[in-house]
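Reading a protein record of the kind used here takes only a little practice. An example makes this concrete, so a full record is given next.
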Amino acid sequence: MSEHLTNIVVVGIIVRDGKVFIARRAKTKTTFPDRFELLGGHVDPGEQPVAALKREIREELAVNVHAGRLVDAFTYESEGMFKVELCYLCTLDTGAEPTLHPEDHSESRWIGPGEIDLFEKEDEETAAVRKVFKILEGENYER
């Protein structure tokens, strides 16, 4: 039996017109306040990852997301827990516009490949976004 408590995290790398959607966490958040992030959240017990992703995006942005291919999966430790993160390439319904909840996010942007430094971090999630930009450029990107 593992000593770790494990959470599964699902993240949507939402694309439109060659850009990726990111949102800045509210300053009141206890973890990573005021930093841009991809949207998603934890998978509840018994919930399928894609269903969790759709639920989380609907809760956070009030839009429906269409999950495509799994772009990346990796592990990390955060807040004393072992986490597995699954990053999916996603799109929104045609004409859908994300709506932010001020208690969660203060602003959002659609970024191109040259704006990835807005993340202010270089980690596996940022690498997943770089993979998506390569996919959008027409490369058949594999690990």
